[in-house]
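hey so i finaly got around to running the thing on Heme-copper oxidase subunit III family profile domain-containing protein from marine sediment metagenome. pasting the sequence first so u can double check i didnt mess up the copy paste, my clipboard has been acting weird all day
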Amino acid sequence: LSMALAISAIQRGQTKKSFNLQIFTIICGLLFLVNKYFEWGGKISHGIYPGSQTLLAEEHGTILFYGLYYVMTGLHGFHVIIGIVLLTVMAVFTHKGIITKEKFIKLENSGLYWHLVDLIWIYLFPLFYLIT
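ok and heres what it spat out for the 3d tokens, dont ask me to read them lol
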């Protein structure tokens, strides 16, 4: 939502508002990564990671689940990092006046990437956290 609002703001010529919303979006992405760090850290400290003796003692379904869990959430985290870097560049461009009311396509395309990453999380979240 904040990224869509940032794009809308720049289209209306509200550069400062767009910049602030971009920074807010970046902070949300960083908070997501911090959350994943603690989540993965907790699992790893309990010996739940691919190839661990604890996990190898489990049923094949559990081993497969955690293998997919680490690959999918890791790939998603990687794409979030790419998005954060991209949005940081866009925030700098906005601050320097490169992104303007007339020239906002780079910001819009970056927003599309960010929303794609977000949409993928909407599918991953129930797959790994809600299905028992």
